[in-house]
Design a protein that fits this description.
CATH superfamily of the largest domain in chain A: P-loop containing nucleotide triphosphate hydrolases
Distance between the termini of chain A: 35 Å
Strand order of the largest sheet of chain A: 5-6-7-3-8-9
Strand content of chain A: 25-35%
Pfam families (chain A): ABC_tran
Largest sheet of chain A: 6 strands, mixed
Organism (chain A): Microbispora catharanthi
Order of helices and strands of chain A: EEEHEHEHHHEHEHEEHEEEHEH
Radius of gyration of chain B: 18 Å
InterPro entries (chain A): AAA+_ATPase, ABC_transporter-like_ATP-bd, ABC_transporter_ATP-binding, P-loop_NTPase
Order of helices and strands of chain B: HHHHHHHHHHHH
GO molecular function (chain A): ATP binding; ATP hydrolysis activity
Distance between the termini of chain B: 26 Å
Number of strands of chain A: 13
Largest sheet of chain B: none
Domain ABC transporter (chain A): 4-227
Helix content of chain A: 25-40%
Helix content of chain B: over 70%
Number of strands of chain B: 0
Number of helices of chain A: 10
Number of helices of chain B: 12
Shape of chain B: globular
Oligomer: heterodimer
CATH topology of the largest domain in chain A: Rossmann fold
């Protein structure tokens, strides 16, 4: 069963098309990163999944139901980009209040443990640091034991150490067969914490797969060498090659499969290859290639 | 929702501004004024100063509590993202405004009761049990328009504007209602404004009951009309503030 299904969803703000015909399905139990630059439509998509925004057209289903129903049934927990706490309440009071709003909440102690808040339980919200506040907001997101957890750039205000702890906590929660969708513009976060990365730009899905597949699918990899006076013909037919450029006696082959291209270069041609250089793609290149303005 | 109300009460009782304006102010001023004028007799109502001031200060405290516990906290919750946090839980939207209203009405009680207690203990004010109950119940129910006004302000304005507007509204209504000084010494223009405010009706009803008389129908009708209008405004403003685009 799909935890999330977007079918041709569009969201328009006046003249601006924030989400443009989005199709996306996330099976239950998956951890998916929604990767994209600012303004790509990540937050809009998450807010629509929560019923906070209504799509201009298209249909959204969460566990087969409209978002409002899923929220009312306590199926979704979320950590939105902004969200202050009630200053006069302690951490434990805040978490306990929110968990009681859900039909099948986790026990208070367990929530505090999962969010590393056990020691801060009695501290008032107005005496928490930024990173501690984020942990409380994570605790609120999981308090109801939701089957679907949505995180909108959850680590934006965190330092490196808290970021690592945060993802450990998130994985501990995900390990129980729950579905997680998180938005980020940090590539490493997507790479390290998701089993699937959906790249969106200008409100559309531009790539979808594992981090490795996305790297491979982009012509960001290349092999170059000195060709001299030798003929260039036939190089474009090598496996994986997507483009050939010749400049001052050095040829550059763009490829989607670096290994296959290089192997074929040696086995299937008789060229005298000098000064071979390989240019691997990382996710950063892939991301930039995918999201740059068409 | 019962737990939500409990949480709302807990946080306001920990809020210094609420405690100062709503609990300390009316009781403190009652003690001060009743020492000065407690044994004077008021010509308009025929009440002894200690009773008149008890109703005035309790009315001020109740009015302040109703507005302070609604306008600014609610506006802040809308802007800080706390409202969104609640909107993505199974809590239905109407439970939020209902809880705010109920909590605000409960938070009115400390000032009503404490000013009454101060009057009994320091000025030996004595009313029949029936009249006490009547006075407190009517003055309690009479704060609904002010709580609704506070919620409307909180729904319509951002926190930095809601704060001064609520303050001016609260002191303005208290002044015009004749809670700080009698309406009879107001200049004519101010008097005619005072007569249409809900706080004027509210205070007059309180004084009449304390004097053992039946409130004027015009005052009752006045505050009832304000109540209906302000509750309607609060509901419309709430819907506008929480509408999903």
């Amino acid at each position: 069963m799909n935890a999330i299904a977007f079918t041709d969803v569009t969201k328009r703000y006046g003249d601006v098309l924030a989400v443009d015909g989005l199709d996306l399905e996330v099976p239950a139990g998956a951890t998916v990163a929604l990767l994209g630059p600012n303004g790509a439509g990540k937050s809009t998509s998450i807010n629509m999944l929560l019923g906070l925004l209504r799509p201009s057209s298209g249909e959204i289903r969460v566990f087969g139901e409209p978002p409002e129903t899923a929220v009312a049934n306590g199926e979704i927990g979320a950590m939105l980009q902004e969200g202050a706490l009630i200053p006069e309440l302690t951490v434990a009071e805040t978490v306990d209040f929110v968990r009681r709003l859900y039909p099948r909440p986790l026990p208070l102690e367990e929530i505090l443990r999962l969010a590393d808040l056990t020691e801060l339980a009695r501290r008032r919200a107005d005496r928490l640091s930024g990173g501690q506040t984020q942990r409380v907001r994570f605790a609120l997101a999981i308090a109801g034991g939701p089957r679907l957890l949505l995180l909108d750039e959850p680590t934006a205000a965190m330092d490196v150490e808290s970021r690592r702890t945060f993802w450990d906590n998130m994985r501990a929660y995900a390990a129980r067969g729950r579905t997680i969708l998180f938005a980020t513009h940090y590539l490493e976060e997507a790479d390290e914490n998701a089993d699937r990365v959906v790249v969106i730009a200008r409100g559309r899905v531009v790539a979808d797969g594992t981090a490795a597949e996305i790297k491979a699918g982009v012509a960001g990899q290349a092999v170059s060498f000195l060709l001299g006076e030798q003929p260039v013909a036939g190089l474009d037919a090598l496996p994986g090659t997507t483009g050939v450029e010749l400049q001052g006696g050095r040829v550059t082959l763009r490829t989607i499969d670096l290994d296959a291209t290089v192997a074929a270069l040696y086995r299937k041609t008789t060229l005298d290859i000098r000064d071979l250089q390989l240019h691997g793609a990382d996710l950063e290149d892939a991301f930039l290639a995918l999201t740059k303005e068409a | 929702m019962r737990h939500y109300i409990k949480v709302e009460l807990l946080r306001m009782l920990r809020n210094k501004r609420y405690v100062i304006f709503v609990v300390a102010f009316p009781v403190g001023f009652y003690l001060l004024y009743s020492n000065l004028w407690g044994s004077d007799s008021d010509q308009a109502t025929g009440l002894r100063g200690s009773v008149l001031l008890m109703v005035s200060m309790a009315a001020y405290g109740a009015l302040a509590a109703a507005m302070m516990s609604t306008a600014v906290p609610w506006s802040q919750e809308r802007h800080s993202g706390w409202l969104r946090q609640l909107q993505i839980t199974p809590l239905p939207g109407r439970a939020i405004i209902l809880t705010k209203l109920i909590s605000s009405l409960l938070l009115v009680l400390p000032s009503l009761l404490l000013v009454g207690l101060a009057a009994v203990l320091t000025q030996h004010v004595s009313l029949s049990p029936v009249r006490w109950v009547e006075l407190i119940l009517v003055m309690w129910a009479g704060t609904i328009p002010f709580a609704a006004l506070g919620l409307a302000i909180g729904s319509l304005l951002p926190p930095d504007t809601a704060q001064p507007v609520a303050m001016i509204g609260m002191f303005g209504l208290a002044l015009l209602g004749g809670l700080w000084f009698p309406e009879s010494i107001m200049p004519a223009a101010m008097k005619s404004i005072a007569h249409v405010t809900p706080s004027y009706d509210y205070a007059r009803i309180g004084w009449r009951i304390a004097a053992g008389e039946t409130p004027h129908a015009a005052d009752a009708a006045g505050i009832l009309a304000w109540g209906v209008a302000l509750v309607a405004l609060a509901l419309v403003a709430y819907r506008r503030a929480t509408v999903r685009a």
